[in-house]
Fold this protein.
Amino acid sequence: MTPAPVRPNVLRMRPYSPGRPIEEVERERGLTDVIKLASNENPLGGSPKARAAMAEALDKIHLYPDASVFGLSSALANHLDLPKGQIFVGNGSDELLTLIGLAFLSGLEDEIIVGNPSFVRYDSMAELAPCGCVQVPLTADYRLDIPAMIGAITPRTKLVMLANPNNPTGTRVTRQEVDALFAALPEGVTVVLDEAYFEFACDDPGFPNSVENVKQGKPVIGLRTFSKTYGLAGIRVGYGFASPEIAEAIQRVRAPFNVNALAQIGAVAALADKEFISETVRHNRSERDRLMQITTELGLKPVPSAANFVLIDLGRPANPWVEQLLDRGVIVRSGVGLGLPNCMRVSVGTTAEMDRFYAALTEIVKGDTASA
Ligand SMILES: *Cc1c(COP(=O)(O)O)cnc(C)c1O
C-alpha cells in the first residue's frame, strides 16, 4: 500500500525562509542579547490600543469569530471610503495572495508577471496554481521596470504583481508608471498593488492612489496589512480592496473563519490608533535617514527606500558580513537568497538597536579595510 502522491508542483515549491529567530541565533552563537533587523517588524511594538482591546476580548475566545468580519470590514470601509462589499480580509495579506491565486489562476495556460527580485510569495502563488511565472529583472537602480513588465504581457497573462514599495529593495513605482501600465493593459489582466508598506510611503504625492484606481473601475486589487505599520505581524491580518466582482470571488474561496477573533478586534482598534501610526512613521523616517547617511559614510551604497527597511549594496559578497554581524548579535537579511549576492536588507529598528548595528558594521568595515 502506498499513500496518495503529492502533486508534483507542490514538491517543486521552495519553502519560504523567514528571518532567523533570535533564540536560534543566541543558542547557536552562545549570545544573550541578539537583535533582529530582518523581518520589517515594527520596532515600537504593537499598537497600544490594539493590545488593550485584545486583552479585553480574551474573555470571549471560546466563541467562533464573526465569519462575516463585520466590525473590521465596516471600519475598513470607513477608512478607505469604499463600500464594504469591495473589501476582503485575510490571515495576513499573505493568505490573500493564496486566495487571489485560487480565484484567478487555473493552470499552466495562465501566467503571472513579477519583478525579480520582488516579494518571494508571488513565486509560491505561481508554483501552487501551478501557472507560469514571468520574472522581469529590476532596473539598474533596483526599481520595478514597468515598461519591461508591460512588454512581458501576453495573451496568457492574468496578473501583474507590483509590490509597492517593493520588497526587498524598498523602491516604489510612481503614479505615472501605474497609469502607463493601466493604459497598456489588454482585456482580462488584473494588476495587484501589494501595498504592505503603504503608510510609510503614502505622504509622497507621486505615490499611486490604489483606492482611487478601484473607484475608477480599473482592473486592480489593492492589498495592505496590519503587520508592518500597525505592529500586529503576530496576529495575522491583511486586507484587500477591488471591484465588487473580484471581492466576491475572494469571499467565495476563503475559509469562513480565516481571521481569528482577537485579530478582528485588534485590527479595528489599531486602525483607530492614529497616534501610534504617526509615531511609527516619524520614527521610521528619522532612523531610515540615519541608516542611509551612516552606511553611505562607511562607503556602502544604500538604496533610497520608501519602506521600513533599506537594501544596502556592499560592493562585495554579502554573506561573510552577514555572518560577522551574527557573531556580534545582529540579524539582518542576506541578499544571496534574493538574487542580490552583494546586498543585505536591514529593517529599521529602535534607535538603540540601530546604534548596535552601526557599531558592529563599523568594526566589520574597518576590519575588512585593515586586512585588505
Ligand atoms: C510583509 C509583506 C507582506 C505580508 O504581510 P502579512 O500581512 O504579514 O502576510 C505582503 N507583501 C509584502 C511585499 C510584504 O513585504
Observations:
- The mean pLDDT is 96.
